[in-house]
Amino acid sequence: MPDRDPAPAPGAALRTLHARGRLAAEYPAVRALLAAADRDAFDFAGRVLAPLDPEDVLAHHPDTPVVRVAVTGRGTVGEVLPALTAQLARHGILARTRVCGSGGYLGDLADPSSPLYAHAPEVTLCVLDPLTVWDKVEAPWQPLEVSVAAERLRRVLGELAQEHADSAPRGATLVLNTVPLLRRFTHQLTSLTQRAELGGLWKQFNADLLHMARPSAGLAVLDLEPVTSAGVRADEPRLGAYADAHCTAELLAHYAREAAHLIRGLRGEAKKCLVLDLDGTLWDGVLAEDGPEGVTAAGTLRGAAFGAFQRTVKQLASQGVLLAVCSRNDDGAVRRALAEHPEFPLRPDDFATVVADWGSKAEGVRTVAERLGLSPEAVVFADDTPFERESVRAGVPGAAVVELEAEPALHTERLLADGWFDTPALTDEDRLRPVRYARRAARASSEAASADHRAFLDTLELRVEVSPAREHELARLAQLTLRTNRFNLTGERLDAEQVRQRAAAPGAAVLAVRAADRFGDEGVVGAVFARIDGDRLRMENLLLSCRVLGRGIEEAVLGGLLAAAREAGLTAVHAVWRPTRANAAVRTLCPRHGFRTVGGPGAHPDSGTGRGTATGPATGAAAGTDRGDDAETGEESGAGSRAAGEARFEHPLRTLPPVPGHVTLRLRLTGDPVQPTEPTEPTADGAEVEACAPSRS
What we know:
By secondary structure, this protein is an alpha/beta fold. Strands 16-17-15-14-13-12-11-18-19 form a nine-stranded mixed sheet, sandwiched between helices. Strands 2-1-3-4-5 form a five-stranded parallel sheet, with helices on both faces. The chain has a five-stranded parallel sheet with strand order 8-7-6-9-10, sandwiched between helices. Helix 1 (about 10-20) packs parallel to helix 3 (about 40-50), helix 3 (about 40-50) crosses helix 5 and helix 23 crosses helix 24.
């Protein structure tokens, strides 16, 4: 049989699509091509994708995730668009962009009626080029005068950030950046003492900018120092002089890469699991040939490089990244090496699961994902062998693949290059993820040993608490709205500040769902967004982490909520389901619990379409995907209150569904404890429901 022709290189394939006019029609293929593209291919992709009409792409692929981006800055900044468009395409995101007035960022951001705000951006990039501050400094100058000008600008940027928060769509993010200090300015000072003073004052200015950052509240700051310290030149003197374009193309390319990582993180698309090869990746040597005692991660210069990489991986794990092994080796030898080798920073307890056999790496990565309950898009695979990397790319669509190559000293740099695990804020749930997955494994093992699922649930000692979210839980609730797709009634996305505003609104109930069992505390696993409307409770959204589905928690929460509403004297509970790509399974949740359909498909012919509509504020800017512990698949952008295909429900609170008997439920609608009254109709053993409700005022 003749050999199959090799696949064309990414750059050649992109050129073919462009030449045939097929970029819009085959836009999903661009993501895979750019995953392994070199710098030239990225440059070409940016040039041909930037002019592409997003509507043409959406006509072929209406479910493509879209982000609206406005770009402004101190100088000419339009050249960032091609690089940004290509970087977002690499992550499967389609950009709707608008470049605003060149050099007019003050007016763009300060004027609520400016074209920038008319674009309704979800993300606004305000590119501060290397001439920022210096355009306000008159010669001759002293370091202190530069510092005063920098501080004035920082204050102005703070005011502009507030205006952006007020004028941009709710949940939008303004992105600033640190400003490189150019040699052409430092060396205008002949005094080494003054030069050092200027350097210190400038670093303080950039530090103050970084301290302004609150990504989860709508203000992010990209730090460009790691980029320039790696040798990327910041300024372009000739274009700066003649075209007011002061940033080099290379700096803008790196800026776009970091901005795309930020946008991906804002959308809740941080990866959850790092799957690692062993030979040539975590240690030096070949286990099957050298044995557990013959591999090394210390003792030699090359071995020490592997040890440094293991410490990097351990640092990621300390922040909630799940670690797994996928190795073509004997399972026993792998486990002995991890458990007994004295040189390894990583130990067996650091890994959520180990797949060691002689099957394909693609099959192994799929097994890891299945064991941990993750979607493939939650996984990052790192391997030093090209064949294995291509096997996973082809066999596990959606998984990110890190090319480690053969030089261990570069492993850390390559692993961290794409910020796969970056998130706007790290929550307690993130940090405890490895512990929770260890408990999950123990729970699964116990369930497998049980005679049946019902018997297992009866031994679980499941405790569920539902009550108003505490301040430190708001970020977690926002994270759940971004990452939870499968069990999410509406697909609505909120950031932490939006959750806080919801909780503070009159008549609102923003409830955190917490769960624990005999294996340990699961923490916050779900949320209920509701509000009082006259004598009715409107459930604006209900969502639950996929990692706890199948235990009866959803039935307990809904049953308890209905009981609490009735005990509070309300006459009905209304809910809405809005279809997304991933939440079809929860369409029947409300009908199964006694709700009747009053609007949308399946509505009773006598029901008024106006009743039972749970209308809430518009969706937030970031539309995320389930990743990992909260995950299935699919990217959603949220929906309007009258999305096509939505269904609206009403429960008259006459006959209530029971709380599952194996669940001990404590549910409170308000933050003020009250004595629970005896329900008219018992819910279930162990259920404690407080008969109180948010103020109607």
